[in-house]
Amino acid sequence: MNNISYCYNGMIALLLSVVVSGVVSLLIKPTPPEDLKEGVVNPTCERLYRRWYYARRRTTCNLENVNGSQEAVTMLPLSDTNLHSPQ
């Protein structure tokens, strides 16, 4: 570490903290966006987190029926049709 310029110490620390926090977030259950308090997280980061969270859970979701019961709903599989115009 002595051969690394002191200018890189901050960048290395930032990257290391992002990687470690990402690994820990994947190992434990992430906090649902609804549980985040308003104004605690930067709005841009909150918007990105909501996109990531719902994209991650996109394969299955729970919907409540009118009578209050829940059922699992899955997305339709992607079609393999070729939508390009004939050449």
From TrEMBL:
Keywords attached to this entry: Membrane, Transmembrane, Transmembrane helix
UniProt keyword Transmembrane, yes or no: yes
Record-annotated membrane-spanning stretches: 6-28
Domain of life: Eukaryota
Protein name (record): Uncharacterized protein
